[in-house]
Amino acid sequence: MHRSRPTVGLPLALIVVAGVMSGLGGGSAMADPGTDGTLYVNHDVACNDSGTGTPSLPFCTVQAAADVVEPGDTVRILSPTGDPYSGSVTLTRSGTSDAPITFTGAQPGTAGSRAVFGWPGSAPALTLDAVHDVHVESLAFTDDGGNGVAVTGSTHVTLDRLAINRPALAAPATGSAVSVDGMSSDVTVSRSWLGPSYGYGVRTEPGAARVTVTTNEITTMREGAVVVTGTSDADVTSNTILAACAGGISLDGASSGVVENNVVITPGSAQGSTCPAPTAPLYAVSADSTAEVTADYNVAANDAGPSAPARTEYSWGGTAYATSAAFRAGTGQATHDIDGLVVVLGSQPPERSPLVDSADAAAPGELGTDFGGHPRADDPIVGNTGTGAPAPDRGALERADVITIPADAYPSSGVAPFETSVKTDAVSNWAKALTYSVDFGDGSDPATGAQGTPITHTYTTPGRYLTRITVTDSDGTSTSGTTWTTAGTATPPTATLSAAADTANDGTVNAGAAQFTAAEPADSWEVLSRVLAYGDGSQEALGDGVGQALHQYPAPGTYTATLTQTDRLGRTTTATTTFHAADTYVATIPQHDTEKTIAAHGILKLSAATLHADSGGVDAAQLQLVTSAAKASGSLTLYTAGTTRPGTSTIGFEPGRTALDQATVKVTPTGSVDLYNGSSGAVTVNVATVGLQSHAQYADTYHPVAPVRLLDTRTGTGGSTGPVAGGHSITLSVGGTHGVPAGATAVVLNTTATGTKSSGNLVLSTHGTTGSSLTGPYWTTGQTASAQITLPLKDGKVVLHNAGKGSAQLVADLAGWYGTATGGSEFLPVTPARVLNTRTGTGTGKVARLAAHATLKLKVTGAHGVPATGVTAADLNLTVPAPSGSGYLVAYPDGTPRPGVYSLNFTKGHTTANRALVKVGTDGEIDLYNAGSGPVDVYADLLGDYDVFPATS
């Protein structure tokens, strides 16, 4: 029965090509296979089914190539992205014995890759219809139904290295991975993986002839792995089959042939009620076929599971045999069969396995290489029990020599030009002689060598190269390893780092968050890692290309971020940038938080919840304090809870008078502040939150201005002329005037009442909303009183209401506004500090009161936590203690003309305090002008500063 082994094509690489449909481009193609006789299919590029099939203009579909292919042509199916070809293909054109037609999915320059035919419906993915001399190789197929490859009326067909799989279980199982009809002959199915869920792996129909099924891995078919019916000269050789649910190999219908060197595995634990044929024998030959079938050198790896007994291993002419020994005794077949083994599908036999070197090399259909393309090799560790030299292993996979390439065999890196040396000290487990081939990856020809002689090479051009070492033993078994080798530049790539503020689309800013950018360096291939340390104890690694990282700082402050860049030679470069994390203003509807009486020398503790300062990243609160019912003269000091009480005052008070002031105070991480009564008597205080400063919220920046008068009812400035009667209001437009944009969110005004006809006070409200009023200055009859007020805006207008009974002239001066980031300033709170005291010489260097109509220059930058440069405004609290006369102070930026505005009005004998958010001159100084008729002492307490936004360097 033996006949010569057929010739089988053996490509070195697999590719997965999806089923290809026709119709992506009409017309008849004029193929141009070029000098190498190759037509190209590639739907990942500009393609045309009416084209010529050249690399520059390939076909879009496999069908288009199949329609024009000629004898001797190769159709190369490319799939660079793995995108499947959709549809089914029918080939009706033939080759010749000297010039066969070849369809291949092997990708040039890649190993082990293949492409996927994904096709719908019941039609086969590929049909070879009445053709001859055709090779199909290195393709894969996946579908939801139908057959994989159908051979109909064809001869001299080779199907090699295919992968055919149906991912979904079909119940009942239908179709075949490969089918050969009764009009076909000389068909070979070799070194293919036939996946689960088909009815059959390979199935031949009556009338077929000379069909060879060799060196395949076939798993979990539902009806049978290899089913040969009515086929003459069928050779089933060296396959490994997982027959969990059905028979492994069966021949019936008066078939003839040879069954040798196969391994059929049946894991009993996989049997169950869902298997269509869970008790089928592993090998079966019907009574009408036994006379013409030879079986030997096969393996029955019959593993009984807990839920199923061991299966019948052989059925011969209708008689069942439980073991190979019984089969041999009963039939005279299977002289060299073995059983009782546990075999794992997809794994080469372990060392000293009975499968090794125990097969028949002369079995028809036996190949010179195994399922993975490895040559049949003699294992010197075991004795040969098979035939031939070398005797092959049983099943689809050959036990190969294990070649170990030491890790230190690979070349190192260095500055180009540099010479590297590859060690030739790999180890063969079988002590075989080894030869070496090294592709250094720089376009030079591979270098070869033998054991014990290092292979040297010089890299002349900087670059990163993939070095491949291939070690081959004397049997032809090869092992490869790769590593990247860096031929570095003379100097490491330069690191660069920049930072920008985190500004939202609406112009608000998170002033405590930085957007860092590390530019992609020149020679970026040389960079191994980049680590960005933010300067606050945290860091992160940056990826390739342009590295960006958004970082939220935990608190305001100046941070130096450092980028450390390490190249592949271990050299490091660094780049730094400074980021000033700060606060922006969160405008709030004024909240009257609490009213308490503080005992003499007592402390009122104000919690974060009370001040509405318990939201994210709040560092400071802007509060308004109103005192009343004072039992004695004194002052209140507002400061951060848990810190030493500063020697400053926030508001002064005396019996029989109501006092008002706004102030900014740093809060603890939980938002708490303390309010100390420095008086010998109790006083009642009303506290209202008028704004918050946060380093972790998107909010507004401050825009200080040189003071400018918006309203004066004495002159008609601002649109209102004449005193405002008690109980009456006027509306003042702020947004859209004097540089304040219509969209400003809050305004800072110095408000003044003069010419007062009775005691009273001013109430300021946001126009167009309710519940947004703040108390303005309080006055007695005839007194001029002022207060700086920060008030939110809705439509750009402010309402001023005279809450007294008598009339008063009203004045409003613009100090600044809050709004979007462009041109604005960010806030840095400081520990309260007295930066001016004319009684002690603090801030001036001499003890002297500020004379009438004199100006005092006060430096506010470069000390007390205030930067030396970039400061745009100072947040101060001004106090005139016990003046000997009445008048007012004007605070304004040094180097600018003195404006005709009020910053603090004082009355003879009464200590007066007022917040002064003052723009700073370019020299870091502010000017204080005494517009009174006599000299006065002045205190200035620093609460914070505003700086140019964004402040990075």
Instruction: Look at the structure and name the CATH superfamily of the largest domain.
Output: Single-stranded right-handed beta-helix, Pectin lyase-like
Helix content percent band = under 10%
Q: What is the approximate shape? A: elongated
Q: Which blocks of ≥5 consecutive residues have pLDDT under 50?
A: 1-29
Radius of gyration, in Å, reads 46 Å
Written account of the structure:
This protein has 953 residues and is mainly β. The chain has 7 domains: 15-79, so0334 like fold (2-Layer Sandwich), CATH 3.30.1910; 115-339, Pectate Lyase C-like (3 Solenoid), CATH 2.160.20.10; 403-488, Immunoglobulin-like; 498-581, Immunoglobulins (Immunoglobulin-like, Sandwich), CATH 2.60.40.10; 584-694, Nucleoplasmin core domain (Jelly Rolls, Sandwich); 701-819, Nucleoplasmin core domain (Jelly Rolls); 827-948, Jelly Rolls (Sandwich). Helix content is 2%, strand content 44%. The chain has 3 helices and 70 strands. The strands form 14 sheets. The protein has a 10-stranded parallel β-sheet with strand order 1-2-5-8-11-14-17-20-23-26. Strands 3-6-9-12-15-18-21-24-27-30 form a 10-stranded parallel β-sheet, with no helix packed on it. It has a 10-stranded mixed β-sheet with strand order 4-7-10-13-16-19-22-25-28-29. The longest helix has 8 residues, at 324-331. The protein is elongated. The two termini are 89 Å apart. Mean pLDDT is 90; it is low at 1-29.
